[in-house]
Amino acid sequence: METFALLLAPALAATINAGTPLMLAAFGLLVNEKSGVLNLGAEGMMLLAAIAGFATTIATGSVTLGFLAGAAAGGAAAAFFGWMVLWLNTNQYATGLALSIFGAGLSAFLGIPYTGMSLKASSVAIPGLSKIPFFGPVLFNQHPMVYIALLLCAFLAWFLNHSRTGLVLRATGESPESAHALGYSVRGIRMAAVIFGGACCGLAGAYLALVYTPLWQEGMTAGKGWIALALTTFACWKPWRVVGGAWLFGGVTILQLNLQGLGVAVPAQIMAMLPYAATVLVLVLISRNPDWIRLNIPASLGKNFNPNSA
């Protein structure tokens, strides 16, 4: 039993580590969607943030500045997306896909000088707590961004359900016409939500390049932006469910690595597809209950709003 615990603890710690970038990105996308904006450009924003954070850390030696650069890159890309869909009224789906493709291409070009470079992996052991048997190495020997992500979850749960600003944000996603009639700037609220979402995706991308890997590689997100998009639906747009979903998908990712390490005779291609197969399976199971989605999805998600015609 003790041997099993010794093997399980590193796997659970790695699961939390793998789930953190999904969690951060999904929180940002959740706020986007609560305001009524669907941004399919998460993959591109995460890649731009990954190279921005990695290059900044290489140049300055500061991981903190790397995370700030990643958040800024994600926020800037999201602001451009917001200007396109909120002021120029472009199609949200097409614009998001274009952002994803553009971010992948630009990050690959900007990352050419940094290919092959790496950083030292970092984690912070909380004094005392990290020595607790089993739970210490799992919960209290993680990078600070893991704890920041959990605090962000608690903040969003309070903000969206108990603050006036959060309720107004939700109102713009349910009925932008009503919010506009009450004197609220729907465009301004949605733009703030989009930038916040981009910054969260930026933190997720920076986490991949600075903590999870830590190195720069073209296309290093490997579909995690799309998984984060699916995660918001899986969680029914509720922050606490995002945490469980992120750890679930993170666990599937770690499972493939552990099975390979144990020498399980399964083709590597099958192992690599496990996280994406799990994503598809979860979405299929959710879609079997359309009422569940209909009761939770923001009513105006993906629909443009022009105040001049309201």
Report on the structure:
It contains 13 helices and two strands, in the order H-H-H-H-E-H-E-H-H-H-H-H-H-H-H. The protein is mainly α and 310 residues long. A two-stranded antiparallel ribbon has the order 1-2. Helix 2 runs parallel beside helix 4, helix 2 (42-60) packs across helix 9 and helix 11 runs antiparallel to helix 12 (268-287). The longest helix has 33 residues, at 2-34. It is globular, with a radius of gyration of 20 Å. The termini are far apart. It is a multi-pass membrane protein. GO terms for molecular function: transmembrane transporter activity. This is ABC transporter permease. It holds the Pfam family BPD_transp_2.
Content-based structural category = mainly alpha
Order of adjacent strands in the largest pleated sheet = 1-2
The span between the termini is 65 Å
- The first-level CATH class is given as Mainly Alpha
Question: How many DSSP helices?
Answer: 13
Rg, please? Answer: 20 Å
Oligomer: single chain
Per DSSP, what share of the residues sits in E-state strands of 2 or more residues? under 5%
Shape: globular
For the record, the count of structural domains works out to 1
Mean pLDDT: 88
Runs with pLDDT <50, length 5+?
A: none
Number of strands: 2
Sheet having the most strands: 2 strands, antiparallel
- CATH architecture verdict: Orthogonal Bundle
Which range best describes the helical content: under 10%, 10-25%, 25-40%, 40-55%, 55-70% or over 70%? over 70%
The name CATH uses for the topology is ABC transporter involved in vitamin B12 uptake, BtuC
Q: Secondary-structure element order, as H and E?
A: HHHHEHEHHHHHHHH
InterPro entries: ABC_transp_permease
Keywords: Cell membrane, Membrane, Transmembrane, Transmembrane helix
Main location: membrane
GO molecular function: transmembrane transporter activity
